[in-house]
Automatic annotation (TrEMBL):
Lineage: Bacteria, Bacillati, Actinomycetota, Actinomycetes, Mycobacteriales
InterPro entries given in the database record: Glyas_Bleomycin-R_OHBP_Dase, Glyas_Fos-R_dOase_dom, VOC_core
Superkingdom, taxonomy of origin: Bacteria
Stored PROSITE patterns: VOC (PS51819)
One Pfam short name: Glyoxalase
Name used for this protein in its record: VOC family protein
Length: 144
């Protein structure tokens, strides 16, 4: 018996939908720091908040919207986040450096393990991004 998910196998899993404070700033940051592109025009609600925006990353799509606390949708606060986003990249070192210069906070410096060159950073909007690129054999970094 077919499952209700057959036919959707071309998709790469669940699509992240981020709730952020200052959605316009977040869109600009993701474009600058990660090279995302905005797909279409964001939907702007009557009160000026972004109700929906689509960002295309080289490895997939991310949706985002401003906070809507009246609906229970709030951004991460105080270093508390329940979801980490795995972001495949071509050059972990370059993406980490660029995102850090753009205002991201490094949570875990570069290591090589499990077949990837990894690093983790928190964006200025409280979301955790786990960068995973190809191994280089280069030194791991644990500081700036």
């Amino acid at each position: 018996m077919p499952t209700p998910y057959e036919g959707n196998l071309h998709r790469a899993g669940a699509l992240p939908y981020l709730t952020v404070a200052r959605a316009r700033d977040a869109i600009d940051w993701y474009v600058r720091a990660f090279g995302a592109t905005v797909v279409g025009d964001p939907i702007v609600m009557d009160d000026g908040r972004i109700g929906h925006a689509e960002l295309n990353f080289p490895s997939g799509m991310v949706y985002l919207a401003d906070e809507f606390p009246e609906m229970g949708l709030t951004a991460p606060v105080g270093g508390a986040t329940s979801v980490s986003l795995m972001l495949p990249v071509d050059d972990t070192d370059a993406v980490l450096a660029h995102a850090r210069e753009a205002g991201g906070t490094v949570e875990r410096w570069i290591t090589e393990s499990n077949g990837h060159r990894n690093a983790t950073l928190i964006d200025p909007f409280g979301h955790r991004w786990m960068l995973a690129g190809p191994l280089t054999g280069g030194p791991a970094t644990d500081t700036q």
